[in-house]
Amino acid sequence: MYKTISNEIIRSINSKSNLLNIITDENEELTVRQWVEKYRNVVPPKDILWLLCRTKFLSDKDLRLFAVWCAREALKLITDPDERSVEACNVAEKFANSEATKEELDAADDAAYAVVTSAKSAYYTASTDYAAYYAPYTAAYAAAYAANFSHIFYAYVAVDYAVEVAYCNAISDRDAVRTAQVDKLLTYFD
What we know:
Layout: E1 4-6, H1 7-13, H2 19-22, E2 29-31, H3 32-39, H4 45-52, H5 60-76, H6 83-96, H7 102-125, H8 130-147, H9 153-168, H10 174-186
Antiparallel strand pairs: 1-2
Helix pairs in contact: 4-10, 5-6, 5-8, 5-9, 6-7, 6-8, 7-8, 8-9, 9-10
């Protein structure tokens, strides 16, 4: 795992990354924390999350725990969240800590996707007040993606769905939510 960030590392992830236009010092190599602190006012929080939500920087366990944290933050914003979504987060956290089996995780994931399906149906058939249906739909997705971690990209997707829930509930703008997520993500690099 990378403990530092440099243009070479960014290029190895995506040779056409916009970050390469921002960080012009080809010889600069900073710890993850130093890099984020130096560039967080220049690099959008979404791009910082995009860069760090991968196994090049974090273990599967930490990525799953971060996705679970984001999903829980989203579920806090939903009035009466579906218990299956909450349980998906609980089981995903237990699985990350080796306290649940893959079978238990798969069952929680299936239940979470059932919530997504019903929330999606409610959202698409709503005749008015789409936001009232979109927030539960996206919160359910955040929980489901936190549980279904078959692809590392799902951590970033869980993060993004959590952002949408806060935005739908007029809690904050997307960048403010992502900034809070970056702050949480940095705790994994202490």
